[in-house]
Design goal:
Number of strands: 12
Distance between the termini: 44 Å
Number of helices: 1
Structural class: mainly beta
Strand content: 25-35%
Shape: globular
Helix content: under 10%
Order of helices and strands: EEHEEEEEEEEEE
Length: 209
C-alpha cells in the first residue's frame, strides 16, 4: 500500500495518483532487506596483523595531531541556556493573499463559477465507483464525457497557483499552448484560459483587502 502524503489515504500499490485527493504519490520505500549492504569481507585474524611498535606509533601520532584546546567549563552557578527548540513543520499549503476561482466561458453552463480552495483542487467528473470526488466537478458540463474522472490538479500554495495534468485521456491545455505533459505542473496567473475536454475555463484572481 502507498500512503498519500497529502490526505493520508492508503492507496493500492502501482498507483501514481491518490484516489482520495488526486495528489501525486511518492514511490514506496524499498525493502530494507533489499538494500542491505553486502557482508564485509572477513578480516584477517588478529594474530596475522603485524604488531605496531607502541612507542614509535604513539610518538608519531602525537606529532601529527594538532593540539586542540578544550573549551572552558561554565563557572559554578552560571545558567547555561538550553539549545533552541526545533521549528514546527511547515503546513502542507500556505494560505494565499487572494481568492481564486474558475469561471466557465465556453461549453456546459456558461458563467458557472468554481471557487478554488487552498491546497489541492481536483478537476474532473464525480464518480463514486472510481473514488473521484473533484472539487471542480464538471460532470454536468460534459455530456460527451471528454473530461476524465480525475483529469487535472490545480494547487494553491505559498501564493502560487499551478495546474498539472494527471494522466487525462484528452489532455489539458493552458492559453491554447501545446498539451501539458502529465505530472509536470505549470504556474497560472489571473486571466489564463484552461481548456479541459470541450470546456473552457478562465482563472479569476481577486486580492484579499
Amino acid at each position: 500500500m502507498i500512503k498519500c502524503s497529502e490526505c493520508g489515504l492508503e492507496n493500492m500499490d502501482g498507483l501514481d495518483y491518490c484516489d482520495g485527493c488526486g495528489a501525486k504519490l511518492s514511490a514506496a520505500a524499498p525493502d530494507a532487506a533489499a538494500v542491505a549492504p553486502p557482508p564485509a569481507a572477513s578480516e584477517e585474524p588478529a594474530s596475522a596483523q603485524p604488531e605496531a611498535a607502541p612507542a614509535a606509533a604513539a610518538e608519531a601520532k602525537s606529532e601529527a595531531e594538532p593540539m586542540v584546546e578544550k573549551p572552558s567549563e561554565a563557572p559554578t552557578g552560571e545558567i547555561v541556556a538550553p539549545p533552541p527548540a526545533a521549528a514546527p513543520a511547515a503546513a502542507a499549503a500556505t494560505s494565499a493573499p487572494f481568492k481564486a476561482k474558475l469561471s466557465m466561458v465556453r461549453g456546459g453552463r456558461k458563467g458557472q463559477e468554481f471557487v478554488l480552495e487552498n491546497g489541492n483542487n481536483l478537476v474532473g467528473r464525480w464518480d463514486p465507483e472510481t473514488g473521484a470526488f473533484p472539487e471542480v466537478d464538471l460532470d454536468a458540463d460534459d455530456p460527451e464525457a471528454k473530461i476524465s474522472r480525475k483529469h487535472a490538479l490545480i494547487r494553491i500554495d505559498d501564493g502560487k497557483i499551478t495546474i498539472e495534468d494527471i494522466g487525462s485521456l484528452n489532455g489539458t491545455f493552458v492559453n491554447r499552448q501545446p498539451r501539458l505533459a502529465p505530472g509536470s505542473p505549470v504556474e497560472l496567473k489571473g486571466g489564463d484560459e484552461i481548456i479541459i475536454g470541450k470546456t473552457f475555463l478562465k482563472l479569476v484572481i481577486d486580492p484579499i483587502s
